[in-house]
Amino acid sequence: MNIIINHSSMIPIYQQIVEEIKSLILRGELKENDPLPSVRSLSKELKISALTVKKAYDFLEEEGFSKTIHGKGSFISQESIYLLNERKQMEVEAAFSSVVEKAKSYGMTEEEIKEIFFLILGGNYD
User: Fold this and answer.
1) How far apart are CA 28 and CA 82, in angstroms?
2) How many helices (H) and strands (E) does the chain have?
3) Is the CB of residue 30 less than 8 Å from the CB of residue 76?
4) Which positions ≥6 away from 102 have C-beta within 8 Å?
């Protein structure tokens, strides 16, 4: 598994690990029931504390992206792809909502907003 962390980033290392693993799931490089590296092996590979990796794995499990089986390790959960897709959709909906509110505050009509939307998509509004 190829996880890249930036030691000079303002983002905590455990959070970088979490985001990298989520990204691997989204790209299909990690699938349901795929094992995550052991805490010890990933900490050696990344040259960081095992506690940092454990914190990242605990966070992933709390959010439903992984499951830990005592004595066997951590694995990608069945819900992980669903959770990520749901979050992406919520983020896009929030962005659209913000843009629509801004357009309305400028006095644009729904028809004008729809026309812009279809122009951006590259289609015809007709």
Assistant:
1) 12
2) 5, 2
3) yes
4) none
Give how far Cα 109 sits from Cα of 106, 112, 116, Å.
9, 5, 11
**Per residue, what are the HEC states of 62-88?**
HCCCEEEECCCEEEECCCHHHHHHHHH
The pTM for the full model equals 0.69
**Sequential pLDDT tens for the chain (126 residues):** 789 999 999 999 999 999 999 999 888 899 989 999 999 999 999 999 999 999 999 999 999 899 999 899 999 998 877 777 888 889 899 999 999 999 999 999 999 999 998 888 887 665
Tokens linked to 14: 């455990």
Q: What are phi and psi of 75, to 5 degrees?
A: -135, 155
54 in Cβ contact with 73 (< 8 Å): no
Structure tokens at 91: 């983020």
